Amino acid sequence: MKVSERGEFGFIDDIKSNTIFNPATIVQGIGDDTAVYRVTEGYDQLITTDMMVNGIHFSEVTTIPFDVGYRLGAANISDIAAMGGEPRQAVIAAAMPVDTEVAYMEAVYDGFKSICQKYNVNIVGGDTVTTTGPLVLNVTLVGEVPKGKAVLRSGAQVGDLVIVTNTIGNAAAGLAVLLAKQKSFDFIKECHQRPEPQVPLGRWLREHKATSLNDISDGLGNELNEIAKASGVTIEIDETKLPLHEELQEAAKILSANSLDWALFGGEDFQLTGTVPAVLADTIEMQPHIHVIGRVVTGPSKVLMHKADGETRLIESKGYDHFKHKS
Ligand SMILES: Nc1ncnc2c1ncn2[C@@H]1O[C@H](COP(=O)(O)OP(=O)(O)OP(=O)(O)O)[C@@H](O)[C@H]1O
Ligand SMILES: Cc1ncc(C[n+]2csc(CCOP(=O)(O)O)c2C)c(N)n1
Ligand SMILES: [Mg+2]
Ligand SMILES: [Mg+2]
Ligand SMILES: [Mg+2]
């Protein structure tokens, strides 16, 4: 059945069950003019929004509907993780072409509900409209962080260590193998299709006094430049220290692609990058999911990379730019 046959209110009825995963904070969920939720005493409130468009962030070739919903949640939860915060309440809006299948949208919502359940996020409302363009989905997410403890982009200090979580470039590599219709490469494909926001590591980094954090949506180069600019520092990273997964290296060989470009400019990894005080070096050494990739030094706001061959390269802020990208 198409959404047009189901009708606006029928559609809302179809998706409104199984949306509250943290009931203690909810006075009113889906079903009134606004939702009503309770905040935690002693916490600052965080709010963020991110959108996904069919043909830009996903396509039939790259992403099944469940994963469209999962990634939509991941992109938003990731921004809360990048503040060292806890995700809490979400509203979701959908602009649908009239011939969209109800089953497709239900699967999108199943994916979104699945990640919300995993991170204890309540889905407290939304909006439903039709469009003559492609499917557009938007989430606005509220989170919380202990008062005054949000980890900003502007706190990097000279002498700090530069860190990144897990491995980077996988989402771009996964997209490339999906578009090339390559078999296998399941790990990097999943990194593209069903990325995991790094909430526990964001919390760990906040608790260990990280001085700045950013999530990797547009590419490591872009995110580190944002930190360098906001903090007024130079960031130096080491090419040999960038954590790259073996599947990414393998995919680069098969597709004759540049694995370093994926890592620096790929985006959509939703890993965290940022800075921590140098005294944390030994503690980080024992943290298997956080890697030191460089240092903060005095100088103008820029990012430099010491290459494997001994040369130094300026890393431009050339991540994914929606107005400049040609597909
Ligand atoms: N259309 C807009 N109107 C008002 N503020 C905006 C708009 N677009 C972005 N911003 C704000 O600009 C800043 C940077 O936004 P950006 O979307 O680049 O960050 P992000 O959400 O971390 O990255 P990404 O969208 O790539 O995941 C944020 O403070 C964001 O709220
Ligand atoms: C079908 C298809 N083609 C290309 C891409 C690549 N892509 C799209 S948006 C984006 C940056 C993050 O977006 P935002 O800044 O909105 O968070 C990237 C790297 C994709 N995901 N799917
Ligand atoms: Mg954004
Ligand atoms: Mg972000
Ligand atoms: Mg972006």
UniProtKB/TrEMBL annotation:
Reaction catalyzed:
thiamine phosphate + ATP = thiamine diphosphate + ADP
Record-annotated PurM-like C-terminal domain positions: 157-257
Specify which residues bind Mg(2+) 4 according to the UniProt entry for this protein.
33, 48, 79
Keyword Kinase listed? The answer is yes
Domain PurM-like N-terminal, residue spans: 31-145
Q: Which InterPro entries match?
A: PurM-like_C_dom (IPR010918), PurM-like_C_sf (IPR036676), PurM-like_N (IPR016188), PurM-like_N_sf (IPR036921), ThiL-like (IPR006283)
Could you tell me the keywords of this UniProt record?
Answer: ATP-binding, Kinase, Magnesium, Metal-binding, Nucleotide-binding, Thiamine biosynthesis, Transferase
EC number per UniProt: 2.7.4.16
Indicate which residues the UniProt annotation says bind Mg(2+) 2: 50, 79
Q: Which residues bind substrate?
A: 57, 268, 320
Whether Transport counts among this entry's keywords is no
Q: So where does Mg(2+) 5 get bound?
A: 218
Question: Which terms does the record give in the GO molecular function aspect?
Answer: ATP binding; magnesium ion binding; thiamine-phosphate kinase activity
Which positions bind ATP? 109, 126-127, 153, 217
Q: Using the UniProt record, name the top-level EC class of this enzyme in a single word.
A: transferase
Q: In which pathway does it act?
A: Cofactor biosynthesis; thiamine diphosphate biosynthesis; thiamine diphosphate from thiamine phosphate: step 1/1
Q: Which Gene3D superfamilies match?
A: PurM-like C-terminal domain (3.90.650.10), PurM-like, N-terminal domain (3.30.1330.10)
Q: What else is known?
A: Reaction mechanism of ThiL seems to utilize a direct, inline transfer of the gamma-phosphate of ATP to TMP rather than a phosphorylated enzyme intermediate.
- Tell me which PANTHER family the record gives: THIAMINE-MONOPHOSPHATE KINASE
Regarding protein family, the annotation reads: Belongs to the thiamine-monophosphate kinase family.
Any idea what this protein is called?
Thiamine-monophosphate kinase
Q: Which species?
A: Veillonella seminalis ACS-216-V-Col6b
Encoding gene per record: thiL
